[in-house]
Request: fold
Amino acid sequence: MPKDLAKVQKKIHKKKGSTTSLHENSRDAQRLRRAGARSDKLEKLATARGKALQPYLRRISFFQSAAKEAAEPFTLESMQALIEIYLERDSTELFTLQSERRPGRPTSTKEDTLKQRTQAEAKEYNSGYWMPDMEDANTLENLKNWNEQWTSLGTLKYVRITREGTKHPSSFPPKGKS
Reply:
């Protein structure tokens, strides 16, 4: 039995012919409602997943732009410097928001989200920042040619780099402390 909305509509149209009127509680109307609800649910899940993956795509896009300028693989120190640059990307906007706020006023929602994101990324950097392994020449070349799609990120090797300078292999997609 088809579950996709388009398939259900097609099957009902074949069965009923050109008549498009259905009784409110008929089996076909119920199938249409279930299929419509399922397609709405899947659409919501897809948008939520896409929204959850955006920070990782932005991060790898930043490292891709740095990789395009590089002629040779990075060292651990240069990768740490790139991470530091990436972590400081919102500091000017955060400073502007703090300076524009009048004394005694509560922080804005945007300022709160920027602070939370900065703190979460700093905490991740302390325990191991997830990024492509830019010391590996093959990964660096694949990163330069990346088409900015989540599905094509599986071809890269990943590492976790800590603030102290340790490097651990990681997996894709990022999970906890993989």
Summary: The helical segments are 5-16, 27-69, 76-87, 91-100, 109-127, 137-144. The longest strand covers residues 129-132.
